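cron nightly-structures :: item 1 of 1
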Amino acid sequence: MSDIKNKVQGLDPNVRARDVKNLAETTGNIYEVLSIITKRAKQLNVDIKYELHNKLEEFAVSTDTIEEINENKEQIEISKFYERLPNPVIIAAEEYMNGELYYRYNDKSKKKKE
C-alpha cells in the first residue's frame, strides 16, 4: 500500500461526471462496472485504513490517566495527509478508466450465461 502516495499524486479529489456509455463499453453492462469499481474501492478503503492505523500506532501512549493531551506535529501531518486523499471510489474509478483493474467472472456465472 506504500504506492498510494504515488497513485493519487496527480488525481483530482473532486467528484466529476462520467460518461456511462463509455464506462460500460468493456463489460457491456453498467451494473457490472459499478460492481467492479465498488469492490476495488472497498479494498482500497481497508488498505488505507490499515496503513493509517499502523502509522498512528507509533504515537499511541498507553496511560490510564487523562491528565494531559500532547499534540504531536508528525501525527497531525499524517492525519492531514490521509484526510486530503481522494475518496477510494474516485481512486477505483480512475483505475478502471485507465485499465489498471483486473477482474474475472466465477465459473458459475459463465455456465449460467451459456
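cron nightly-structures :: done
The mean pLDDT is 80.
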